[in-house]
């Protein structure tokens, strides 16, 4: 019996942090991903490393999700070559909360208008399946913990608004044709790296997120960590978040695709988190113990808009997708440290 051909997927933003790790899991699960990325925050080196880790030559298109003509060409050409795109995994977007407050139009343009352009191209090509990178930021101020998917959607910054708006678009898009399938994965706080030490998070400039800041202090690129707030009503006064290993997140995408391809249609929004909250100091202490590096820190006042604590109820992901995070905080720290210590300047080495 000949082997079934690998289903072709379009992976937007595949050269970024989460996208590059997900490519590995997709390839290992038997998919043929085509990467579309404008490299505004992604790295061609990351894609090369995905190739060497998987032994699979990637098809890469440098381009923008807002380029309707390019998208039409991509969908059309794959069809003409007999391997039509069967689904889209949509990572491409802007992701810095502070920047979204300063430049909201850029965020609405890329995240919302870009997704509309993508969906229109999918409609033209009759591609009905999308997995979308949403975020726990859609929930806004927590009314209770943990967040379930039933928690009200009330984002408090433009970045979160763009994710909530796209979710609504996808809900409406699915409602108009039964065959359409959209799964919005609401990520909590992805950290860590591929255990090979070859792939990881490589922020440009000063990291916006806590974990890459810690690893950059550990490797000597930054002098100390500022911890914003030590008077929250939490276990030790510092903020609590649900950190999730980026590879667990990557596996979640494969499970979401399997689920989408096995259903007749419809919309779903699903939390991807561990269900466990970790404070800044707990993360710091775990990282220090594993890396053997002391991380100097200073407490600073709380930042406006930050919440005290949040973590996921991940039970929908388990019930619907058969997915559960399996990697520990120690795994996240060990893998993140291996990446940072071997690549102190990210992919620039
Ligand atoms: N990292 C997180 O903490 C986090 C949490 C929740 C949700 N998300 C979402 O997950 C997705 C991936 O996040 P990430 O951390 O990998 O970010 P990233 O910046 O590393 O990856 C995004 C990729 O999209 C590309 N891109 C940006 N705009 C584009 C455009 N207009 N056209 C084509 N490509 C474009 C970038 O070059 C980059 O390679 C984003 O949508 C983000 O909002 C991330």
Question: Could you write a compact summary of the structure shown?
Answer:
The chain is α/β, with parallel strands linked by helices. It is built from eleven helices and 13 strands. The strands form four sheets. The protein has a seven-stranded parallel sheet, sandwiched between helices. Strands 7-10 form a two-stranded parallel sheet.
Molecular structure report:
The chain has helices at residues 17-28, 44-54, 68-80, 97-102, 104-125, 158-175, 210-218, 246-262, 280-291, 315-321, 329-342, and strands at residues 8-12, 32-37, 59-62, 85-90, 129-135, 181-187, 189-191, 225-228, 240-241, 243-245, 266-272, 278-279, 297-300. The longest helix has 22 residues, at 104-125. The chain has a domain at 8-191 and 243-274 and 313-325: NAD(P)-binding Rossmann-like Domain (Rossmann fold, 3-Layer(aba) Sandwich), CATH 3.40.50. The chain is 40% helix and 17% strand. The chain contains 11 helices and 13 strands. A 7-stranded parallel sheet has the order 3-2-1-4-5-6-11, with helices on both faces. A two-stranded parallel sheet has the order 7-10. Strands 8-13 form a two-stranded parallel ribbon. α5 packs parallel to α6, α7 packs parallel to α9 and α7 crosses α11. The radius of gyration is 20 Å and the shape is globular. With 349 residues, the chain is of the alpha/beta class. α2 (44-54) links the parallel β2 (32-37) and β3. Nicotinamide-adenine-dinucleotide (NAD) binds at residues 12-13, 15-19, 37-42, 64-66, 91-93, 95, 110, 114, 133, 135, 187, 190, 209.
